[in-house]
TrEMBL record:
Protein name according to UniProt: Beta/gamma crystallin 'Greek key' domain-containing protein
Role summary: Crystallins are the dominant structural components of the vertebrate eye lens.
Residue span(s) of domain Beta/gamma crystallin 'Greek key': 63-103, 104-146, 195-237
GO BP, one annotated term: visual perception
Residues annotated as signal peptide: none
Pfam family, one: Crystall
UniProt similarity note: Belongs to the beta/gamma-crystallin family.
Keywords, in A-Z order: Eye lens protein, Repeat
InterPro entries: Beta/Gamma-Crystallin (IPR050252), Beta/gamma_crystallin (IPR001064), G_crystallin-like (IPR011024)
Amino acid sequence: MCWPLVDEPKASAQHSGKAALCVRAFAACLRLYIKRGPTFGSYRSVCERGREAAERDMSQYSGKIKFYEGRCFTGRCLEVYGDCDNFQDRGFMNRVNSIRVESGAWICYDHPDFRGQQYMLERGEYPEFQRWNSHNDHMGSCRPIRMHGEHYRMELFEGCNYSGQCMELCDDCPFLQSRGFNPNCVNSIRVFGDGAWVMYEEPNFRGRMYIVERGNYCSHNEWQAQNPHIQSIRRVVNYF
Protein backbone atom coordinates (compact mmCIF):
# COMPACT_ATOMS: atom_id res chain seq x y z
CA MET A 1 0.00 0.00 0.00
CA CYS A 2 1.30 3.44 -0.90
CA TRP A 3 0.49 6.50 1.22
CA PRO A 4 0.82 9.94 -0.40
CA LEU A 5 2.86 12.59 1.34
CA VAL A 6 1.91 16.24 1.04
CA ASP A 7 3.98 19.39 1.12
CA GLU A 8 4.01 21.70 4.11
CA PRO A 9 0.68 23.60 3.98
CA LYS A 10 0.36 27.33 3.84
CA ALA A 11 -0.80 29.03 7.03
CA SER A 12 -4.12 29.99 5.47
CA ALA A 13 -5.00 26.46 4.38
CA GLN A 14 -6.36 25.27 7.72
CA HIS A 15 -8.01 22.06 6.59
CA SER A 16 -5.11 21.08 4.33
CA GLY A 17 -2.80 21.61 7.30
CA LYS A 18 -4.78 19.18 9.44
CA ALA A 19 -4.71 16.57 6.69
CA ALA A 20 -0.95 17.00 6.34
CA LEU A 21 -0.44 16.54 10.08
CA CYS A 22 -2.43 13.30 10.04
CA VAL A 23 -0.49 11.95 7.06
CA ARG A 24 2.90 12.85 8.56
CA ALA A 25 2.07 11.30 11.94
CA PHE A 26 0.80 8.08 10.40
CA ALA A 27 3.69 7.88 7.94
CA ALA A 28 6.24 8.23 10.75
CA CYS A 29 4.72 5.30 12.65
CA LEU A 30 4.47 3.24 9.47
CA ARG A 31 8.16 3.77 8.70
CA LEU A 32 9.07 2.57 12.19
CA TYR A 33 6.87 -0.49 11.71
CA ILE A 34 8.59 -1.36 8.43
CA LYS A 35 12.06 -0.76 9.90
CA ARG A 36 11.61 -2.66 13.17
CA GLY A 37 9.14 -5.29 12.07
CA PRO A 38 7.06 -7.24 14.60
CA THR A 39 9.11 -5.92 17.54
CA PHE A 40 7.43 -2.55 17.08
CA GLY A 41 3.99 -4.04 17.64
CA SER A 42 0.98 -5.02 15.58
CA TYR A 43 -0.23 -3.08 12.55
CA ARG A 44 -3.29 -2.08 14.57
CA SER A 45 -1.13 -0.63 17.34
CA VAL A 46 0.81 1.34 14.71
CA CYS A 47 -2.44 2.84 13.43
CA GLU A 48 -3.45 3.71 16.99
CA ARG A 49 -0.11 5.40 17.66
CA GLY A 50 -0.44 7.31 14.42
CA ARG A 51 -3.91 8.53 15.39
CA GLU A 52 -2.74 9.63 18.83
CA ALA A 53 0.26 11.48 17.37
CA ALA A 54 -1.95 13.19 14.81
CA GLU A 55 -4.38 14.28 17.53
CA ARG A 56 -1.56 15.77 19.60
CA ASP A 57 -0.35 17.74 16.59
CA MET A 58 -3.88 18.88 15.76
CA SER A 59 -4.41 20.22 19.29
CA GLN A 60 -2.67 23.43 18.27
CA TYR A 61 -5.58 24.00 15.88
CA SER A 62 -8.56 22.48 17.68
CA GLY A 63 -7.83 22.69 21.40
CA LYS A 64 -7.86 20.16 24.20
CA ILE A 65 -10.61 18.93 26.51
CA LYS A 66 -10.61 16.36 29.35
CA PHE A 67 -13.66 14.38 30.49
CA TYR A 68 -13.81 12.73 33.94
CA GLU A 69 -16.16 10.03 35.18
CA GLY A 70 -16.34 11.47 38.69
CA ARG A 71 -17.09 14.89 40.08
CA CYS A 72 -14.28 17.33 40.79
CA PHE A 73 -12.01 15.74 38.16
CA THR A 74 -11.82 12.27 39.67
CA GLY A 75 -12.07 8.80 38.17
CA ARG A 76 -11.16 7.74 34.68
CA CYS A 77 -10.18 10.49 32.25
CA LEU A 78 -10.57 10.85 28.49
CA GLU A 79 -8.46 13.43 26.63
CA VAL A 80 -9.77 14.66 23.28
CA TYR A 81 -7.99 16.90 20.76
CA GLY A 82 -10.46 16.89 17.85
CA ASP A 83 -13.76 15.38 16.71
CA CYS A 84 -14.87 12.36 18.76
CA ASP A 85 -18.12 10.81 17.51
CA ASN A 86 -18.42 8.13 20.18
CA PHE A 87 -16.75 8.08 23.60
CA GLN A 88 -17.28 4.32 23.90
CA ASP A 89 -15.02 3.76 20.90
CA ARG A 90 -12.24 5.22 23.07
CA GLY A 91 -13.05 2.83 25.91
CA PHE A 92 -14.87 5.50 27.92
CA MET A 93 -18.42 5.09 29.21
CA ASN A 94 -20.96 7.78 28.31
CA ARG A 95 -20.94 9.14 31.87
CA VAL A 96 -19.23 12.48 32.48
CA ASN A 97 -19.41 14.33 35.79
CA SER A 98 -16.65 16.92 35.37
CA ILE A 99 -14.76 18.53 32.51
CA ARG A 100 -11.61 20.60 32.02
CA VAL A 101 -11.34 22.65 28.83
CA GLU A 102 -7.65 23.46 28.53
CA SER A 103 -7.93 25.28 25.20
CA GLY A 104 -10.46 25.89 22.49
CA ALA A 105 -14.25 25.97 22.61
CA TRP A 106 -16.24 22.76 22.30
CA ILE A 107 -19.71 21.50 21.41
CA CYS A 108 -20.60 18.44 23.49
CA TYR A 109 -23.59 16.19 22.84
CA ASP A 110 -25.42 13.84 25.18
CA HIS A 111 -25.56 11.14 22.45
CA PRO A 112 -22.97 9.66 20.08
CA ASP A 113 -22.60 10.84 16.47
CA PHE A 114 -23.03 14.51 17.42
CA ARG A 115 -26.71 14.05 18.26
CA GLY A 116 -28.99 15.02 21.10
CA GLN A 117 -28.82 17.95 23.47
CA GLN A 118 -25.94 20.35 22.87
CA TYR A 119 -23.68 21.99 25.43
CA MET A 120 -21.25 24.83 24.85
CA LEU A 121 -18.02 24.49 26.84
CA GLU A 122 -15.43 27.23 26.73
CA ARG A 123 -12.01 27.36 28.37
CA GLY A 124 -12.26 26.68 32.10
CA GLU A 125 -13.17 24.06 34.71
CA TYR A 126 -16.56 22.41 35.25
CA PRO A 127 -16.43 20.31 38.47
CA GLU A 128 -20.01 18.98 38.10
CA PHE A 129 -22.48 18.56 35.25
CA GLN A 130 -24.76 21.35 36.49
CA ARG A 131 -22.01 23.80 35.53
CA TRP A 132 -22.64 23.16 31.83
CA ASN A 133 -26.43 23.43 32.34
CA SER A 134 -27.06 19.69 32.15
CA HIS A 135 -29.60 17.74 34.19
CA ASN A 136 -27.65 14.46 34.05
CA ASP A 137 -24.19 13.06 33.38
CA HIS A 138 -24.88 11.69 29.89
CA MET A 139 -22.25 12.62 27.29
CA GLY A 140 -21.58 10.72 24.08
CA SER A 141 -19.63 12.85 21.58
CA CYS A 142 -17.91 16.20 21.09
CA ARG A 143 -16.23 18.39 18.51
CA PRO A 144 -14.28 21.66 18.63
CA ILE A 145 -15.53 24.99 17.36
CA ARG A 146 -13.32 25.82 14.41
CA MET A 147 -14.58 29.35 13.76
CA HIS A 148 -12.36 31.50 15.98
CA GLY A 149 -14.10 34.77 15.40
CA GLU A 150 -13.39 38.45 15.45
CA HIS A 151 -16.20 39.43 13.10
CA TYR A 152 -19.68 38.37 14.15
CA ARG A 153 -22.88 38.85 12.20
CA MET A 154 -26.06 36.83 11.84
CA GLU A 155 -29.59 37.34 10.50
CA LEU A 156 -32.66 35.90 12.21
CA PHE A 157 -35.89 35.21 10.33
CA GLU A 158 -39.35 34.60 11.70
CA GLY A 159 -40.29 32.15 8.93
CA CYS A 160 -38.65 29.21 7.23
CA ASN A 161 -36.51 29.79 4.13
CA TYR A 162 -35.52 33.29 5.29
CA SER A 163 -39.02 34.76 5.24
CA GLY A 164 -40.99 37.03 7.57
CA GLN A 165 -39.56 39.53 10.04
CA CYS A 166 -35.76 39.79 9.94
CA MET A 167 -33.29 41.06 12.53
CA GLU A 168 -29.51 41.42 12.31
CA LEU A 169 -27.22 40.77 15.28
CA CYS A 170 -23.55 41.65 15.72
CA ASP A 171 -23.30 41.26 19.51
CA ASP A 172 -24.88 39.41 22.44
CA CYS A 173 -28.63 39.77 22.97
CA PRO A 174 -30.11 38.60 26.32
CA PHE A 175 -33.71 39.07 25.12
CA LEU A 176 -34.67 39.26 21.45
CA GLN A 177 -37.96 41.06 22.06
CA SER A 178 -36.06 43.94 23.67
CA ARG A 179 -34.45 44.51 20.25
CA GLY A 180 -37.80 44.67 18.52
CA PHE A 181 -38.00 41.07 17.35
CA ASN A 182 -41.65 40.48 18.22
CA PRO A 183 -42.11 36.72 17.78
CA ASN A 184 -40.24 34.29 20.03
CA CYS A 185 -39.88 31.92 17.08
CA VAL A 186 -36.79 31.81 14.88
CA ASN A 187 -37.31 29.44 11.97
CA SER A 188 -34.28 30.24 9.81
CA ILE A 189 -30.95 32.02 10.16
CA ARG A 190 -27.90 33.09 8.20
CA VAL A 191 -24.53 33.21 9.98
CA PHE A 192 -21.82 35.40 8.45
CA GLY A 193 -18.33 36.36 9.54
CA ASP A 194 -15.90 34.04 11.30
CA GLY A 195 -17.53 33.58 14.71
CA ALA A 196 -19.83 30.97 16.26
CA TRP A 197 -23.03 31.70 18.21
CA VAL A 198 -25.05 30.04 20.98
CA MET A 199 -28.84 30.34 20.80
CA TYR A 200 -31.01 29.72 23.88
CA GLU A 201 -34.69 28.86 24.23
CA GLU A 202 -35.09 31.20 27.23
CA PRO A 203 -34.07 34.81 27.94
CA ASN A 204 -30.77 35.68 29.65
CA PHE A 205 -28.87 32.78 28.06
CA ARG A 206 -30.75 30.02 29.82
CA GLY A 207 -32.52 26.84 28.78
CA ARG A 208 -31.72 24.46 25.99
CA MET A 209 -28.96 25.72 23.71
CA TYR A 210 -27.96 25.34 20.07
CA ILE A 211 -24.58 26.20 18.56
CA VAL A 212 -24.34 27.52 15.00
CA GLU A 213 -21.35 28.40 12.85
CA ARG A 214 -21.07 30.15 9.50
CA GLY A 215 -23.68 28.97 7.02
CA ASN A 216 -27.35 29.05 6.05
CA TYR A 217 -30.02 27.27 8.10
CA CYS A 218 -33.38 27.28 6.29
CA SER A 219 -35.33 25.71 9.18
CA HIS A 220 -34.87 25.04 12.89
CA ASN A 221 -34.35 21.34 12.15
CA GLU A 222 -30.98 22.20 10.64
CA TRP A 223 -29.58 23.23 14.04
CA GLN A 224 -31.17 20.08 15.56
CA ALA A 225 -33.94 21.94 17.39
CA GLN A 226 -37.30 20.32 18.06
CA ASN A 227 -39.05 23.70 18.00
CA PRO A 228 -38.24 27.23 16.79
CA HIS A 229 -38.33 28.94 20.20
CA ILE A 230 -35.26 31.17 20.60
CA GLN A 231 -35.20 34.11 23.03
CA SER A 232 -31.53 34.95 23.65
CA ILE A 233 -28.28 34.66 21.69
CA ARG A 234 -24.61 35.20 22.50
CA ARG A 235 -21.27 34.98 20.74
CA VAL A 236 -18.63 32.33 21.47
CA VAL A 237 -15.60 34.39 22.45
CA ASN A 238 -13.56 32.43 25.03
CA TYR A 239 -11.45 30.18 22.80
CA PHE A 240 -7.91 30.19 24.21
